[in-house]
Amino acid sequence: MDSLTQIVLGASMGEAVAGRKIGNRAMLWGAVAGTVPDLDVFGGIFMTPEDALAFHRGISHSLLFAVLMPLLLAWYTSWLYDHQHHKKPVVKWITAIAGILFLGFCAFILNVIPVAVNQKISYIMLGVTLVAVLYFAYRLIVKFARQEQDSVEMPYWRWYLLFFVAIVTHPILDSCTGYGTQLFQPFSDYRVAWNNISVADPAYTGPFLLLLIIAATRKKSNPWRSILNYAAFGWSMIYMAWTVRNKILVDRIFEESLKTEQVEYSRYMTTPSILNNILWHCIAEGDKVYYDGYYSLLDKNPVVQISEIEKNHDLIKYPDDRRMEIIRWFSDGYYNVIPLNGDTLQVNDLRYGAQIGGETTKPSDYIFPFQLSTEGTRYHMQDQSGPPEGSMKDFWMILWNRVAGI
Fold first, then answer.
1. Domain range for residue 391?
2. Looking at the chain, which terminus has fewer C-beta neighbours within 10 angstroms, N or C?
3. What is the per-residue DSSP string for 115-146?
């Protein structure tokens, strides 16, 4: 899921393991550990687009990484606190500055959401996040950097447990999305994708974050601190159970719709649309076409209106090209092809569907496209692109109308 959600989950795990012992430091280190797997995105700076696509959610999201990485992190924190290095002024100021930058990053993520939806800044969100960042920055400087720090005594095994649960829950949560997570690297590149929650869902993250912030304002000896944290994690579990229930319901409705339309298909998948768990995208694979549709839990009739999308797989001249193999693997085989200018093709990852209620013949109709240009007897992948500039405002309007069952 998105980075903010992983930060919140990691902080909650850290609090559960060591909050009563080391207070907000448990949340801090849990948040850091919850972020570590997603640092693989920086590897993309030094890679080709196709290699970066294959690398993300790879080894850093594996179960093996979750077992081994805490060994190093637990050694570092044990060294830091056992030798009292955390009391040194330079370490305190570096930590405070890092914390402020971290808060700024969280605020940036929160402000990106309304910009993506409305194509404009939400001044309410901007004001709230600015006040929050300034308040916590003040606390970090006055209460942390400028004050003497207490000694921290916690055994290595507890540090390891804190980092382990904060890291291992990251790829498990990611596996609930449709993007796919390589849990079994380096032994297998199989992508685990349970498709029951969107890669970003404010209804999941918002209450989780709010309860955790309130918990962080309580002293470590206050019993309400643990109660609020367990309530936050409980909310996440209840919401996740609700998403599984929704998926089972939508699967059944889609199967019945396919049966009613007498559609012959080899497999299908359903996944929630972005930022919600009410509107679901459904797609089934036929011989030469895909059968595509959307269903909202608020629709009056339990029916998926099905449309056809041409595969056009025959347009791929070099099916064994490495770039094409990566796209085929990444999309789990759910892709179609549209010709562009000259020898350039657009390959669309159909797990994310087409523009809701739109056509499926133009390049701008698809949400997750790749462009492949021919170079001799192989393809060159251009940077992954999204819908054309200016089209997203209409997309969000149509999306929310469909969420409402319109």
1. 261-406
2. C
3. HHHHSS--HHHHHHHHHHHHHHHHHIIIIIIS
Measure the CA–CA gap between 60 and 176, rounded to whole angstroms: 17
Is 254 among the domain residues?
A: no
**Looking at this protein, which amino acid is placed at residue 168?**
V
Main-chain dihedrals φ then ψ at residue 365, nearest 5 degrees: -80, -10
Are 216 and 274 in a shared domain? no
Same domain for 383 and 234: no
Select from 209, 242, 275 the last residue of a domain.
242
Per-residue pLDDT of the chain (406 residues; tens, 9 = 90+): 888 899 999 999 999 999 999 999 999 999 999 999 999 988 878 888 889 889 999 999 999 999 999 999 999 999 999 999 899 999 989 988 988 887 888 788 778 767 665 667 778 888 988 998 898 899 889 888 888 888 999 999 999 999 999 999 999 999 999 999 999 999 999 999 999 999 999 999 999 999 999 999 899 999 999 999 999 999 999 999 999 999 999 999 999 999 999 999 999 999 999 899 999 999 999 999 999 999 999 999 999 999 999 999 999 999 999 999 999 999 999 999 999 888 899 999 999 888 776 678 788 888 889 999 988 888 988 765 555 555 566 777 888 889 998 8
Both 229 and 283 in one domain: the answer is no
Same domain, 233 and 274: no
Number of domains in the chain: 2
- Asked if 106 and 212 sit in the same domain, the reply is yes
Calculate ∠ Cα 90-95-101, nearest 5°. Answer: 130
Do residues 156 and 272 share a domain?
no
Please give the Cα distance from 19 to 192 (Å, whole number). Answer: 32
The neighbour count for residue 289, using CB atoms within 10 Å, is 17
Query: Does some domain include residue 253?
Result: no
Q: Is residue 120 one of the residues assigned to a domain? A: yes
Query: Do 266 and 235 lie in a common domain?
Result: no
**Residues 330 and 230 grouped into a single domain:** no
Q: Please give the C-alpha separations between residue 396 and each of 120, 364, 369, in angstroms, as whole numbers.
A: 12, 15, 18
Q: What is the three-class DSSP state of 296?
A: strand
Residue type, 317: K
The two tokens of residue 103 are 């808060």
Rounded CA separation 98/91 (Å): 10
DSSP, res 143: I
- Position 255 in a domain: no
